[in-house]
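chain below, 223 aa
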Amino acid sequence: MFILINKPKGMTSHDVIYHVRKITGEKKVGHGGTLDPNATGLLIVGVSRNATKMLGEITKNTSKEYIAEITLGEERTTDDSEGKVTNSSNKKIDLDKIKSVLNKFKGKQKQIPPIFSAIKKDGKKAYEMARKGKDVKLEPREIEVFEVELLSYNYPIMEARFKVSSGTYIRSLARDIGRALGTYAYLSNLQRTAIGKFTINQSVKLEGLDTSNWKEYIIESIT
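prediction:
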């Protein structure tokens, strides 16, 4: 059994699991594809032992789609709004250059994940070492950007839609786009709008889920 949840801002993915566990009374509840606390949007939640076992394998090889708000002119330690400013610039970028650079990010490429991530380095989570002030260097990983669409631009804010392979960090894309533009950038807002064939329009807001109605939102299979 699976439920498509629209995760609210400010909650961790684990917080969502805790709430679903309380609502359903099921002990075995898990999610596929973590969302950062400040991100919103689609989270596939498995309810039952079999569902949680299937989640990782299914979502690992599934494309994901996001609407990203990127702020130009600053680079931050976490590559999002939570981090400390490390570099800044007042350079204004024109619309034609934005479009040209975004187009260059389509296709397969190597991406260095954010150091404030759960990726393990020498057996420890990168963000745990980064918080202690240790120098963390992560290896580039191959990702693919299937689609890029500029939705709006009003300096210093641009909004774009990305359809990407699993394992892609939109925070890293924001950082790298800033550098390719000859300035700096960080991810200031993020919504996941699709995972494979499922979209945000099919999801239920967490606050709308309760003990009396949760079974109405059950999807038996996500394959």
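The first helix runs from residue 13 to 24. Helices lie at 13-24, 49-60, 95-104, 126-131, 170-180.
thats it, cya
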